[in-house]
Design a protein that fits this description.
421 residues; alpha/beta; Purple Acid Phosphatase, chain A, domain 2; 3 domains; eight-stranded mixed β-sheet; six-stranded mixed β-sheet; 21 strands; binds manganese (II) ion
Length: 421
């Protein structure tokens, strides 16, 4: 059986305020072509389908278009789990409609789908998130564990438990218990696949998943995963990687496209795992062809920056432009650069001569306003207008009042892990 593993589509995610739906459409189409070319039997999407809990109609349309294409009229099974960015109930609300296409969506770790016909597959439901089916005389058991917060874990594991000591246990211990519970359905004569959306210890992140490391409590060591799982398809980390020490059986497919500059160093991919009962998986990396890379240009002066923009005006790419200069970059110069290259995400002057003398100044002696003016000037190349400074002062004043009111609420929100990046 061939399983195509992908994750972290983040449909609708913006880059410095810019929509990337068109790029996402191109990459998700590439994904469908890979599924077709490699004759995948199942597609696993390991969470973070959307970038936020209230996706736009256009983002939802792209999601439906994609899963329909992937499912090939029910010939290919598509299994989707919720990530920390997804709203579980909203994600799975479409289940009654997608069932005939062979698509199964599990929003939360308590979600269970009924047994029956899904496209061309006969699905036997075993437990929340757990089901089995047979294709080409091979039986497969899938255990799907969507993103869970600490609170969800307590709900799933200790619903009727009154013992507070158990509820207060370590996050990683509880996660292990949940995986073990779901993996109890795995059997030696089946193909056994676990899907989840978690942050595992030893995985090298690249920044855009931030918001998950809350005092280390959400980091899981690799030994929480059940050894009976033949292949573990993970989502949440955008850089593709094998979990260290797993022998390549526990993998992050990574996201189809880079979401920030830091992510551009590693080629984006999805994974094709060929699985047979009792055998080690054979995993193949399939690479995406990014239609619009994110680049960083460092230019020695304004003239060089202008020339570079001119040379690249026909080429599709996003640019963070750094210019070495002795003076600030004027408003009309910014406009001139943008007239050649509209996808300049940021234009940052590198003020070489000023940098040195300033380094020794004591920042602690400066007022907040002075610090802000310096920061703004460095980022934007011009000093902020008086209006901006007044607005900022107003916001700060309000924020002070707000903070004293809600400091406790904020703490509780963070602990629940409700907020992703
Ligand atoms: Mn995530």
């Amino acid at each position: 059986m061939k399983i195509l593993h992908t994750a972290d589509w983040h449909i609708g995610k913006l880059l410095e305020g810019r929509s990337r739906l068109e790029e996402q459409r191109i990459l998700l189409r590439q994904l469908a072509q890979m599924a077709e070319a490699e004759e995948a039997d199942v597609v696993c999407v390991a969470g973070d389908i959307f970038d936020n809990r209230h996706p736009s109609a256009a983002a939802e349309a792209l999601f439906y278009e994609t899963i329909k294409e992937l499912s090939k009229n029910g010939e290919r099974l598509v299994v989707i789990i919720g990530g920390n960015h997804d709203q579980p109930s909203r994600l799975e609300a479409v289940n009654p409609l997608v069932r005939e296409h062979g698509i199964l969506i599990f929003g939360s770790p308590t979600s269970q789908l009924p047994s029956g016909t899904y496209g061309s597959f006969q699905i036997q439901s075993l437990d929340p998130g757990v089901f089995s089916f047979t294709k080409n005389q091979e039986r497969a058991v899938f255990a799907c564990v969507p993103y869970f917060s600490e609170r969800t874990l307590n709900e799933v594991l200790y619903q009727e438990e009154t013992d507070d000591a158990k509820r207060a246990g370590q996050y990683s211990q509880k996660a292990e218990e949940l995986f073990k519970k779901r993996a109890a359905w795995f059997s030696p004569d089946s193909i056994n696949v676990l899907m989840s959306h978690v942050f595992t210890l030893g995985s090298a992140g690249d920044g855009s998943e931030q918001g998950m490391m809350l005092g280390n409590s959400y980091l899981l060591p690799a030994n929480v995963f059940p050894p009976s799982a033949q292949y573990i398809a993970l989502g949440h980390i955008h850089r593709p990687q094998k979990v260290p020490g797993s022998g390549g059986q526990i993998r992050y497919s990574g996201s189809p496209l880079p979401y920030r500059l830091m992510e551009t160093a590693v080629a984006k991919q999805c994974l094709l795992a060929e699985l047979h009962p009792g055998k080690k998986p054979v995993v193949k990396e399939l690479f995406f062809d990014n239609p619009k890379p994110i680049e960083k240009w460092v230019c020695d002066d304004y003239a060089q920056a202008l020339e570079k923009c001119r040379e690249n005006q026909e080429r599709s790419c996003y640019v963070y432009l750094y210019i070495r200069t002795d003076s600030y970059i004027r408003e009309e110069q910014l406009k001139e650069l943008k007239s050649y290259k509209e996808d300049l995400l940021e234009i940052v002057p590198l003020l070489s001569s000023r940098e040195e003398e300033d380094t020794y100044q004591d920042f602690r002696q400066m007022s907040f306003e002075e610090l802000f003016i310096r920061y703004y000037t460095e980022k934007k190349g011009t000093a902020p207008q008086q209006e901006v400074l007044e607005t900022l002062a107003g916001i700060l004043e309000k924020e002070k009042e707000y903070e004293t009111d809600t400091i406790e609420d904020k703490g509780a929100e963070q602990l629940s892990g409700a907020s992703g990046d």
